[in-house]
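step=predict obj=Contactin-5 n=113
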Amino acid sequence: MFQGYITHSYISLFYLSALPQWVRMINDTQMDSGEKLQWECKAIGRPRPTYRWIRNGLPLTSQGRVEIVNGELTINKVQQTDSGMYQCVAENKYGDIYSNAELKILGGYCLYY
């Protein structure tokens, strides 16, 4: 019985600190101009991870049509200029992990022959 107690305590201590691990990642997406993009990434870890977003290698912040809340990214009425490579970064003091996806916005026009 005493040995079981030590094992249980060991397991509990093991989970007190951990590098983030993905629970939900973002995926490549194609959509029409004017649609609403909603991506969510989610990670677990100890301490709880924080999130940041990157577009084409540059930090992405909430402004205008772009809204970022933790691991959720929303872009209202996507445009061609929103196309690119996106990264969701989950991080804590033990390290960071990246989820990558490409967003392709299809033209909002028709070609007639």
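step=describe
Residues 1-13 have pLDDT under 50 and may be disordered.
step=end
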